[in-house]
Design brief:
The complex is a heterodimer of chains A (about 110) and B (about 575).
Chain A lengths: L3 E8 L7 E8 L6 H11 L20 E4 L2 E4 L9 E5 L6 E3 L2 E2 L10
Parallel strand pairs in A: 1-5
Antiparallel strand pairs in A: 1-2, 3-4, 3-5, 6-7
Chain B lengths: L3 E4 L2 E4 L3 H12 L4 E4 L16 E3 L10 H11 L6 H20 L25 E3 L5 H15 L4 E4 L2 E9 L2 E9 L5 E5 L2 E4 L20 H9 L3 E2 L4 E10 L10 H8 L2 E3 L22 H13 L9 E4 L5 H17 L9 E10 L2 E2 L12 E3 L16 H21 L7 H12 L9 H15 L3 E2 L1 H18 L12 H25 L8 E2 L11 E8 L2 E8 L10
Parallel strand pairs in B: 1-9, 2-3, 2-10, 3-6, 10-17, 18-19
Antiparallel strand pairs in B: 4-5, 7-8, 8-9, 11-16, 11-20, 12-15, 13-14, 14-15, 20-21
The chains are: A mainly beta (about 110), B alpha/beta (about 575).
The complex binds flavin-adenine dinucleotide (FAD) and FE2/S2 (inorganic) cluster.
């Protein structure tokens, strides 16, 4: 039997009331939460927003989010065959969905 | 939504190694610099991901010369290098590496203080500097970024700014347009000199070492601005990309430094070493170049002798644990966290798209055929010919960036007027929107990647390349001419639309050039045209003529200046 991962994702733009959406994806051992999100974007909902660049290397340090209330890199956090709750960082200004404003103030268009 | 307009002297698109080096030299020459990136400054491209080495004739490990480095570079390029560009990389390399050293990048050193230089395939002697452990790229990026930040107002930095098109006025660069990812706001930038430092295109392929920002934007920007591309068929595949088991927190090219330091054995699905069966004995050393290794691994797979996931086995089981730990310390723990013990487990590897030799055609001043439009770094074509020597890419990014920044700063004096009329149609696209979405552009990108991997991969044939062109055409129709949705805050699916717009043009450029080159040379292997054909010692040039790509064959530029022996 194939196992599934259930991602409950907090969505919405800055200033909107956040809403939770539920996505089910097939679970594959060894994958990251970011793999799961990319799969959702390509298969069901491309509007789901998350910041990332390097995908594997944990080099860009852009993909920080909260998983089950803990701050993690989405590319370093293992996908598990259970329900996982994904939220944007609480300490940064929300842009949209899982994307927050993490750049230093003098590197933002403003 | 109101547009934001910015004036600057030198606009640099892309904040990787090349872009940051260019920003520093342009600011040093007195120009006002604007450094923009679609991602965050210093984090979005290949530079921060590089783990291994930088090739440079420092002569610290053993005596070396610029001429020897140049000879190896030219030999790797198999007759197609622009010797003038290759000479600049080799000649200016040592100064670029010493600059970083003075900024405390942390090159690995011997006890007596000499910088360590490793011996990488294709080099005639140890020549490649690095930062331990697997930290070369992050260290280079961090160091450059700290220097850029120290320049204060001289270098304005803006991240999350996607450049969609360049603006050209009467044959001369005038700036660029794009949008802010945070809110979708249109942005125009007036600049009398522009440097494209957007890196490579390997995201075009299913299996790659690319970041999300490496779909080849700069090549598309250059083409649409009227500049030319050179030798686009030469995509370098890295032979031993990580294939299985799935790991997290590790770059797929991580096995390269392992092979430098520890050798390792490459085995086929039957557990047999096979490189010598193709006349490439390794004798426990890592000497076979990337194009040849890619070839033999895929041949073994095609012959039914691949590993279970369709690659080859890489084994370090014969290496004592103490040696593994001495060479890679914390990396061994990261492997353990992924359930891998190299003293017990072999891993599976296979070729992945890694670097692009082709690129924007430039003069030795790094200028395109559009006045004051420059290119630097991996975006440039010509210095590596048909195959790149390992370690030359970061050197190239640093050297070309530094040089382009200097020259652009000189050219920028006097300013330029903003040609609103010329910019208009390009700005229109930034604000346009269909309001709805019929196709999922993220899914179309996955389709394109599969198409490129299956039809325009390391092994090519005429019929497969023709199919690829038809496939690209079909995807273009499905993408449409108008971006989906409306400009808005972090609309990633709109970003996918703009990405695919560029990726399709660049994919077509690669495929057309591959179809036209009826020989096999370096990274371009035609199964229906095996073997190198001397008559094909030519570069291929591509330019946009209306909406169509126009291909011409041109002579390889004549020889380089005298180099110090
Ligand atoms: C995983 C990996 C490991 C590597 N290891 C080595 C190594 O050990 N040694 C070596 O010599 N080479 C290595 N290479 C190659 C080398 O890292 C690159 O060729 C080099 O760093 C390229 O530098 P760059 O500045 O030209 O481009 P990049 O560092 O890729 O930077 C380009 C920047 O442009 C930005 N950009 C792109 N398009 C746009 C746009 N439309 N608008 C705004 N910004 C844009 C991107 O976000 C990115 O930040 C490696 C490459 C990879 C992928
Ligand atoms: S995607 Fe780069 S660190 Fe996670």
């Amino acid at each position: 039997m194939t196992e599934t991962s259930i991602l409950l994702i907090q969505r919405g733009r800055h200033g909107e009331i956040p809403r939770w959406e539920r996505f089910e994806i097939p679970y594959e051992p060894g994958q990251s939460v970011l793999d799961g999100i990319r799969q959702i974007r390509a298969s069901t909902d491309p509007s789901l927003a998350i910041r990332f660049s390097c995908i594997n290397a944990n080099a860009c340090k852009e993909c920080m989010i909260r998983v089950d209330a803990k701050v993690v890199y989405a590319c370093m956090c293992r996908l598990e065959p259970r329900e996982m709750r994904l939220q944007p960082l609480a300490s940064k200004k929300l842009v949209r969905d899982l994307v927050t404003e993490i750049a230093p103030p003098d590197e933002i268009l403003g | 939504m109101a547009r934001t307009h910015i004036d600057t002297d030198v606009l640099i698109i892309g904040a990787g190694g090349a872009g940051m080096a260019a920003a520093l030299s342009a600011a040093e020459a007195g120009a006002r610099v604007l450094l923009v990136d679609r991602s965050l400054i210093g984090r979005g491209g290949a530079t921060v991901m590089a783990q291994m080495t930088v090739a440079v004739a420092l002569g610290e490990e053993q005596p070396d010369s610029v001429a020897a480095h140049f000879a190896d570079t030219m030999a790797a390029g198999r007759g197609l290098c622009d010797a003038r560009l290759a000479a600049i990389v080799c000649q200016d390399g040592p100064a670029a590496i010493r600059r970083l050293d003075a900024w405390h990048v942390g090159w690995a050193r011997h006890q007596d203080g000499r910088i360590r230089q490793a011996h990488a395939p294709g080099h005639d002697r140890p020549r490649c500097v690095y930062v331990d452990f697997l930290a070369t790229g992050p260290a280079v990026s961090r160091t450059l970024r700290a220097q850029v930040q120290r320049q204060g107002n001289a270098i304005r930095r803006i991240g999350d700014l996607f450049v969609t098109d360049l603006v050209v006025n009467e044959g001369k660069a005038a700036g660029a347009v794009g949008f802010s990812l945070a809110d979708g706001r249109p942005v125009s930038i007036a600049a009398p000199a522009v440097i494209i430092a957007t890196g490579g295109l390997t995201r075009l392929y299913r299996r790659n070492s690319a970041s999300a920002n490496m779909g080849g934007d700069g090549y598309a920007l250059a083409l649409r601005a009227g500049a030319e591309l050179l030798d686009m068929e030469f995509v370098q595949f890295f032979p031993i990309g990580h294939l299985a088991p799935r790991m997290i927190g590790m770059d797929p090219i991580m096995w390269d430094p392992f092979r430098y330091k520890l050798g390792g054995r490459l085995l086929n699905g039957q557990g047999r070493e096979f490189l010598d069966e193709y006349g490439m004995p390794e004798d426990g050393r890592y000497v076979v170049t990337r194009d040849k290794a890619t070839y033999v691994i895929l041949k073994e797979v095609a012959a039914g002798r691949g590993s279970p996931s369709g690659g080859a086995w890489l084994s370090f089981r014969h290496v004592p644990e103490a040696d593994l730990r001495a060479a890679f310390g914390p990396v061994i723990d990261r492997l353990a966290a992924n359930g891998i013990d190299l003293t017990k487990n072999d891993i599976e590897v296979s070729p992945i798209a890694h670097y692009h030799m082709g690129g924007i055609r430039v003069t030795p001043e790094l200028e395109t055929r559009i006045d004051n439009l420059f290119a630097a770094g991996e975006a440039v074509g010509g210095s590596n010919g048909a195959n790149r020597l390992s370690g030359n890419a970061i050197t190239e990014a640093l050297v070309f960036g530094h040089r382009a920044g200097q020259i652009a700063a000189e050219r920028a004096s006097g300013g330029a007027a903003w040609p609103e009329a010329a910019a208009q149609s390009r700005l229109d696209l930034v604000t346009a929107g269909t309001g709805q979405q019929t196709e999922n552009p993220a899914a179309l990108i996955v389709e394109l990647q599969a198409l490129m991997a299956d039809r325009v991969g390391p092994f090519r044939t005429g019929p497969a390349l023709q199919l690829a062109l038809a496939g690209i055409d079909g995807l273009r129709t499905r993408l449409g001419d108008i971006p989906s949705g409306h400009p808005g805050s972090y609309d990633q699916s709109r970003l996918d639309w703009f990405d695919l717009r560029n990726m399709l043009l660049v994919a077509e450029a690669v495929t057309l050039a591959a179809l036209s080159r009826t020989e096999s040379r370096g990274a371009h292997q035609r199964e229906d045209h095996p073997g190198l054909d001397e008559a094909w010692t030519l570069n291929q040039n591509l330019a946009l003529d209306g909406n169509r790509l126009h291909l011409t064959r041109i002579a390889v530029p004549a020889t380089a200046p005298e180099l110090a022996a």
